[in-house]
TrEMBL record:
UniProt domain PucR C-terminal helix-turn-helix: residue ranges: 514-571
PANTHER family: CARBOHYDRATE DIACID REGULATOR, DNA-BINDING TRANSCRIPTIONAL ACTIVATOR ADER
Protein name: PucR family transcriptional regulator
Record-annotated Purine catabolism PurC-like domain positions: 87-207
Superkingdom, taxonomy of origin: Bacteria
Amino acid sequence: MLAAATPASARCRQVRRVCMPMSVSVLSGAVAPRVAAVSASTATQPPTCSGRQGSKRHFDAVTTGQFVMPERDLGRHAVDMAITVQDLLELPVLSEARPEVLSGGDLSRRPVRWVHTSEIYEIWPLLRGGEVLLTTGLGLVGASPEATAAYVRALARKEVAALLLELGRTFTRPPEALVVAAVEHGLPLVVLHGVVPFVEVTETVHPLLLDHQVEELRVLERASAEMNRRLVGGDGLPDLVAAVAELCGGLVGLYRMDGTLAAGSDVEDADDAWEVGVGTGPWARLVVTGVGSEHRRLVELCSGSLAVFLAHSDAATVTPSTAAAALLRDLASGRYVSGADIAERASALGLSAQPGKRLLALVVRTTTLTSGRTGTDAVVHAARRVLETCAAAEVDGQVLIAASLPFAELRERLSRLLDSIDAELSATVGGSVSLMTAGATVDDVTGLARSVPQAIEAATLATKLSLRSRLVLASDLGVYDLLSGVVADAELERFVDEQLGPLLGQDARTGSELVRTLDAYLEAGLSKTTAAAALGIRRQTMYARLERISRLLGGLAPDDRQRRTALDLALVTWRMRSSAPAHRPR
């Protein structure tokens, strides 16, 4: 247990939660992801890291044309391994385009995880953070200052590393609203004054990033082995915290939840802290100074090792509810150790494959604040009543559920669950279900690692598209999911222009909303009355719009299957790009 200590002066402004997987197999050496398969693979040869003295990276364009990083030992040097936005701008393929930084501060402290090229306005759902986004700004053409600001705000919330805007093709100068919003939200904005071959940029940068990722995994593997050696060797809490400081190369303090120091250094004015605990019960906060976001995985690994020690010291705090919360949270974030780890933890909760049934994950969002204990309890209670055996917990303001259901009765059982949750909420805290999404059905519990993220992604996409149905299966969004990976493709863009170009042009000039009208008409099954009601217009107005649509498209012919399919596909793509709501009849 944690010994008494003096109050800490550190006031951590940002707290990250690190929860320990419930399986005690972590003690046998499974704290960190294994990297043998990655590090052993040499089928493709990325640029090699050569040993150079000092910590500065450089690009040797004259001799090797390779981005060179010095070899690192464990410890603080792991921070310096990350490729940053500043590094990318110094590559010849980008430096020759005369980059000009308009916002973002010190770009040498902005690590890059990947590089994307996109002209989509609604690109943010496809990003995970740490990306450099290359664009000519085509998706911002005609956008209002408010829409431009919303674009920047969404990228900043996704923690995009930088936005690189090539001038000349779309804009001769950056839109003022773009610059103002980038400065306001702290998003690095770089304009490129020369033509940039985006393909060459990705071909140059991606091998470097992959090379870095493999090296990072090697560092994590060695750190995992060191922490596990100390755990098995019986090191106490002070020794473990000292090991964390040695591995991370900074001052480290472990604080109780009341702010008193339990072990390590009394760190002042820390920017980041990691909660250390099991499931929903944090026991302490780990503070590490002098590290950036690129060091996060190493600190999380060390936090997990400390969580193992603390849980082993006081295992009585582990309950089925905290175990369920820990499992679902780990599945949502991909922080599980292995398939065997998932199976062991799910089995302890009573989740297993059964004859005639399939496992799946659900996301439930309500009109009440689900992070409130009473609201969450209402959802969980209803889920257990309808689904019998299930694991349910609140994660990030929504309830995640893993359950086993008869596949033939899937939609009917989920509809019953939705009604049951509505009734439970009405009888307790009020409110109702605003959305329930289901991931893919899977044959065994290890498949939940796929179903949980799918259910979360389906909830995000369904909310973005403003679908009227409260129950959405991931399979219902198959077309959207298929197009999400190619929505920026030039051929698809030409297809949309061929099918809807005259209507899009007319809407842009006059605000006539002909595309929305056509979308509502097809969604209503060609019922003019239903479509008019969905749009909130009179039937006479609907008739007039359809006549104009037919004239602009050279005939509508919605009864023709081939024509209808082409229009539907074009409208789905348009809806994804514009985030227009689906006009479904009530």
